[in-house]
Amino acid sequence: MSDHLNTALELAEAGVPVLPLRAGKLPFGNCRACAGSACGDRPNMLAAGPCQCPKPCHGWAAATTDPRTLASPAWAAAWRQAAAVAYHPAGTLLTVVDLDSPAAVAWARQSLPPTRTVATTRGEHWIYRGTMQSSNGVRPGVDIKSRMSYARWLGPGTGTMADLPDAVRALVVKEPSTVRPTAVTVPTGGTGGECPHRTPVYLERGIAMAEQRITEAREAIHATVYRTFLAVLAAHGRCGCLTEAHVERLFAAAQAKGERPRHCADAWGNARTRLGL
């Protein structure tokens, strides 16, 4: 048994979803049946976890805590070729601030509250308790790894873990334009029309209706959450009006019905993929 597989099994036993990485810190590619999302990513529609195929498919979504899957013959070749072990931070309710240079580390020490740190080859990982949207290049040398992402496992780190601060969440919030109209004109079959998506009342009504739909669900909670996320993104996902606060409201409604944060993140991500966002 390889050292990487041993590490993966120890992490999985502790409840950390893991996957193998090949050289270059990259996940293993999808199997032939799933290449180019030909399978529709259905096995991962509601949660990260291995696809029903003979490889650790779908990148970050292949992360699993199932020791039988990790040690199965189907994954053996991947572990033999693995260059590292990765984990899905949001799957264990964490966010990793990846600081990829000494300058980025210096900025974090001046700008962010201290938390658990892990040394990397070029900088540090700062690990906070809580999840958020992942994003690369939020600052020079700074990436955010949480939902729909993976980070290399480089050890438990040192220091006391802090709650995810607003200063980190703010890194992925786009700056508003100087002038933002409440409605914009879009082409509608050759005639002018107004896009209502940026009207505050329209958006607020849509989010409130989505929350109510999830709250009133009595069965098929997983499917209801996914379909609701899909509907919200279909209506508002392309005009830039959704904010992290709106997403958090939807996630909170789903979690109140028993959904885990990881399931919420995966359902949201799969809805975005379905719509090509």
Compute the average pLDDT. 82
Residue share in helix: 25-40%
Task: Please tell me how large the radius of gyration is.
Answer: 20 Å
Low-pLDDT runs: 175-195
Shape: globular
- Total number of helical segments? 9
Percentage beta strand: 15-25%
Oligomer: single chain
General description of the model:
With 277 residues, the protein is an alpha+beta fold. The protein is built from nine helices and twelve strands. The strands form three sheets. Strands 4, 5, 6, 7, 8 and 10 form a six-stranded mixed beta sheet that branches. Strands 2-1-3-9 form a four-stranded antiparallel beta sheet. Helix 6 packs antiparallel against helix 7, helix 6 packs parallel to helix 8 and helix 7 crosses helix 9. The longest helix is centred in the C-terminal third of the chain and has 16 residues. It is globular and about 55 Å long.
Based on the model shown, name its key terms:
alpha+beta; 277 residues; 6-stranded mixed beta sheet; 12 strands; 4-stranded antiparallel beta sheet; 9 helices; single chain
What topology emerges from the helices and strands here?
Layout: H1 3-13, E1 18-22, E2 26-27, H2 67-70, H3 73-81, E3 84-87, E4 94-99, H4 102-111, E5 116-119, E6 124-129, E7 135-139, E8 142-145, E9 151-152, E10 162-163, H5 166-169, E11 184-188, E12 191-195, H6 200-215, H7 221-236, H8 244-256, H9 261-275
Parallel strand pairs: 6-10
Antiparallel strand pairs: 1-2, 1-3, 3-9, 4-6, 4-8, 5-6, 7-8, 11-12
